[in-house]
């Protein structure tokens, strides 16, 4: 690990003033410290933001508001989150381990870097870590990699569970930088890799995520997050689905569907939502809708199974809610 300067400002203004091109913000540290130890990142200055006023969990008529410094475990266990937005609580509870969830911040989770082995191995080429060096995962070990939103320059999956649930709920993030505050839809916050996979989101230099905003959705109480993985604890998704259904009588009136473990960013499925809406809440509808989840998929040599797994994950999640 390279030597670095550590500072812990007591105001957001001071933290932003300290930010520079070679600066990293530290919240829970469950990702940053790990990557610093591996040599993947080596900031010259680390700014500890834990004293900043970016906490609070509030659910009301305007939706759900979560401070970026709230710990994942606290949000998962919050009674209003469990009751009104169960897919968020379930996605958080399916993430990492209890120890990490107790430390990791919500903002940090949304900003976590890919777990691609080539990215984390500094002896391997990686366009995310070193632009222009290549992407060995395209033809190499790619069982865990993406089938949606990929390019010849990067096929790494986005690792966050809760980001999938939040994208399904059309959440936004509040950002603050030296030039002021702005709000960005989370789905628009993440960039596709294209030719610049090292640019993973739309954060400007020195900007912070300060708050997560989930719009009101009265029927979000009928929602779930299903995660398929190689083992039950501390493992990233091979496939996951965040689903919310508004069912009246036996008809699906509205739906929200997003998947994880398959895309280079959390992947909303509007075609699946459209196929569900206005149709009976039954297995035939769920299978027909899930078939559209594979549109645009580009499987690799070792992850072709994901085309089937994603469909089955969506069907299972829908069936658990709609019967």
Walk me through the structure.
Among the domains are: 1-51, Uridine Diphospho-n-acetylenolpyruvylglucosamine Reductase, domain 2 (2-Layer Sandwich); 220-322, Enolase-like, domain 1. Helix content is 28%, strand content 21%. The protein is built from 13 helices and twelve strands. The protein has helices spanning 12-18, 32-38, 72-77, 79-84, 86-93, 98-103, 106-110, 117-120, 162-168, 186-189, 270-276, 283-290, 306-322, and strands at residues 5-7, 23-26, 45-48, 57-60, 63-67, 172-177, 180-185, 208-214, 223-228, 239-248, 251-260, 267-268. Strands 4-5-8-6-7 form a five-stranded antiparallel sheet. Helix 12 (283-290) runs antiparallel to helix 13 (306-322). The longest helix is centred in the last third of the chain and has 17 residues, at 306-322. The mean pLDDT is 97.
Report the CATH superfamily of the domain at 220-322: CO dehydrogenase flavoprotein, C-terminal domain
Instruction: Compute the number of strand runs.
Output: 12
Structural class computed from helices and strand pairing: alpha+beta
Radius of gyration: 19 Å
What's the architecture of the domain at 220-322, going by CATH?
2-Layer Sandwich
Helix tally?
13
Q: What would CATH call the class of the domain at 220-322?
A: Alpha Beta
CATH fold annotation of the domain at 220-322? Enolase-like, domain 1
Q: What is the residue-averaged pLDDT?
A: 97
Q: Please mark out the parts with pLDDT under 50 across 5 or more consecutive residues, or reply none.
A: none
Shape: globular
Helix-strand string: EHEHEEEHHHHHHHEEHEEEEEHHH
Strand content: 15-25%
Q: Kindly state the percentage of residues in helix.
A: 25-40%
Biggest sheet statistics: 5 strands, antiparallel
Strand order of the largest sheet: 4-5-8-6-7
**Straight-line distance between termini:** 52 Å
Organism: Streptomyces macrosporus
Domain FAD-binding PCMH-type: 1-219
Protein name: Xanthine dehydrogenase family protein subunit M
Pfam family, one: CO_deh_flav_C
């Amino acid at each position: 690990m390279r030597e670095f300067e550590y500072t812990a400002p007591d105001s957001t203004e001071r933290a932003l003033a300290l930010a520079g091109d070679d600066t990293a913000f530290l919240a829970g540290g469950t990702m940053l410290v790990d990557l610093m130890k591996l040599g993947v990142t080596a900031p010259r200055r680390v700014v500890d933001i834990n004293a900043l006023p970016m906490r609070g969990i509030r659910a009301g008529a305007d939706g759900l508001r979560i401070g970026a410094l709230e710990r994942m475990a606290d949000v998962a266990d919050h009674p209003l989150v469990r009751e009104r937005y169960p897919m968020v609580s379930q996605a958080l509870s399916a993430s990492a381990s209890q120890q990490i969830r107790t430390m990791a911040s919500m903002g940090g989770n949304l900003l976590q870097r890919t777990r691609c082995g080539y990215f984390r191995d500094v002896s391997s080429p990686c366009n995310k870590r070193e632009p222009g060096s290549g992407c060995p995962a395209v033809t190499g070990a790619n069982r865990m990699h993406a089938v949606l939103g990929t390019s010849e320059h990067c096929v790494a999956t986005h690792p966050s569970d809760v980001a999938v649930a939040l994208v399904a709920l059309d959440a936004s993030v509040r950002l603050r930088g030296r030039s002021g505050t702005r709000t960005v839809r989370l789905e628009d916050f993440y960039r596709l890799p294209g030719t610049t996979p090292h640019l993973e989101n739309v954060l400007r230099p020195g900007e912070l995520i300060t708050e997560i905003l989930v719009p009101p959705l009265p029927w979000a109480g009928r929602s779930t997050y299903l995660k398929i993985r190689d083992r039950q604890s501390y493992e990233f998704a091979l496939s996951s689905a965040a689903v919310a259904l508004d069912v009246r009588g036996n008809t699906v009136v509205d739906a929200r569907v997003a998947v994880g473990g398959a895309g280079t960013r959390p992947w909303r499925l509007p075609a699946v939502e459209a196929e569900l809406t206005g149709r009976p809440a039954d297995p035939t509808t769920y299978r027909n809708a899930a078939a559209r989840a594979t549109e645009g998929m580009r499987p690799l040599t070792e992850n072709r199974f994901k085309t089937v797994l994603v469909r089955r994950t969506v069907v299972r999640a829908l069936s658990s809610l709609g019967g």
